[in-house]
Amino acid sequence: MKNNSTRQIPIVFSQWKVNEEKELLFGSSSMILDKWNTLINGKLSYQNSDIELLDADEIQTAINESEDDQQTVRSMLIWDLVDKPNIKDKEEYIKVNQAILIRILDKLFSYTQTKQLNENLLLLYNAISQHLQSTLDFIEDFFGNYFDRTEKIPEPYLTIAKANISKQIKRLKNILSKQESVDINLINLIYESIHRLLNDESVVITYNLYAYHKTLLNEFLTQRVMPSTQDIIEVLYFLNYNEDNFITYKYDWLKQSIDNLPSSKEKITALRFEQKKINQLSLKLNCCYNTNMPSLKDQMNGWIDEEVKFLENGHLLDKPTAAENESKIHTTLSVAKLALLLRLLVIDKIIINRTVAPMLRVAAKIFTTLQKEDISFGSMETKYHAPDKATINAVKDMLFKWINILGRL
Q: What are phi and psi of 350, to 5 degrees?
């Protein structure tokens, strides 16, 4: 029999009472969120040795009170939101509550990954986690207009999400394995993108990113006929799959499709025909793989327009004069480093050109590198869309060096 004099944890949830009607009218959801956060980071932490003193009845009482609070916080959220007439205030309010819930869920998930947990404690953590997730789902369902979909999804939900995506991928592989006419390079490109999503710890999976991949896989799996390469490409255009490797894949395909044509006129005609087909493809509204980059159609149109302009002006360019060379910006960068720096400026919306390809063509004309007076547009474009790891690390070092220089200014 346990010695009650050694118990330092009371029935933990009873310290806060927010369920009474009077408190409900004047309280705030932050009270309950603060309670959850304080308990989970303090007395309910698995590192607190006193938590082992809780018996099964006390665990169940804590779970019951947490469930009551789950119901109460919903009413509080509604009352609090009604009191905020300004849309910006509503957005900030939901964003803050959402972020707190996700942080607490992540903390609880880290606790459940600890092998030393006893059965009762694991039951408590899982129950509270369900209440927190239910509250988060309530916010998403009822306040969807203010829900921040650029926020990362919580770790418990992420585990389920990754398992669902893995199942869909297995189904898709089974379907595509029976179809010989599908371009294997295109399929591998999609697989590699999803593999990074599932396995790369540096990738932050937001609500938007997960919803996008879920929609993407559903589109492939619900097609009535066996998909062909063209079917897959049309789905990717429909969902605005502006992923870097797919952009490069389409650029390469266009280059190869016109390389063997004998005249510039025929090449221009072929490019304009492809452009017409691209622009006639349907597009799902408010759908995008990468919100930091121009749409797939815009990038393809930009590339085709620049290629056509180049073909119309002729392939042979006069050798630059000394005066023209003086008008260039000379650098000691490599093409890869210059392209990566330009990409950072685009992602951070410092460079805001509507399409990337024309901007890169201008950059190739006005910049020089340590090795080249004239930068190839194709080389610049390839390095922009597919930076290698060595270049990324080198640019990181360069940015740290700039920070030190700034400190001395």
A: -85, -45
| Residues 6+ away with beta carbon under 8 Å from 290 | 242, 243, 244
pTM of the model: 0.68
Nearest to 347 by CA among 384, 383, 376, 380: 384
Q: Using the structure block, give the residue that is written with the tokens 């060595």.
A: 390
Q: What is the C-alpha to C-alpha distance for residues 241 and 233, in angstroms, rounded to an integer?
A: 9
Given a contact cutoff of 8 angstroms between Cβ atoms, the answer to whether 14 and 65 are in contact is: yes
CA distance 131 to 36: 10
Give the closest residue to 395 by CA, choosing from 383, 408, 379: 383
Rounded CA gap, 194 and 188, in Å?
10
Neighbours of 284 (CB within 10 A): 13
In one-letter notation, the amino acid at residue 82 is: V
Q: Three-state SS string across the chain, please?
A: CCCHHHCCCCCHHHHCCCCCHHHHHHCCHHHHHHHHHHHHHCCCCCCCHHHHHCCHHHHHHHHHHHHHHHHHHHHHHHHHHHCCCCHHHHHHHHHHHHHHHHHHHHHHHHHHCCCCCCHHHHHHHHHHHHHHHHHHHHHHHHCCCCCCCCCECCHHHHHHHHHHHHHHHHHHHHHHCCCCCCCHHHHHHHHHHHHHHHHCCCCCCEHHHHHHHHHHHHHHHCCCCCCCHHHHHHHHHHCCCCCHHHHHHHHHHHHHHHHCCCCHHHHHHHHHHHHHHHHHCCCCCCCCCCCCCCCHHHHHHHHHHHHHHHHHHCCCCCCCCHHHHHCCEECCCCHHHHHHHHHHHHHCCCCCCCCHHHHHHHHHHHEECCCCCCCCHHHHHHHHHCCCHHHHHHHHHHHHHHHHHHHHC
Pair of tokens at residue 33:
């969120």
Residues 6+ apart with CB under 8 A from 93: 80, 81, 84, 146
List phi, psi (to 5°) of 153. -85, 150
Distance CA 130, CA 156 (A): 9
Angle among Cα 322, 362, 391 to the nearest 5 degrees reads 100
Residue type, 178: K
Give per-residue pLDDT as tens, 98-145.
999 999 999 889 888 876 777 888 888 889 899 999 999 999 998 888
Give the pLDDT confidence of 349-380 residue by residue, as tens digits. Answer: 899 888 888 888 898 888 888 777 778 888 88
Tokens of 331: 């650098």
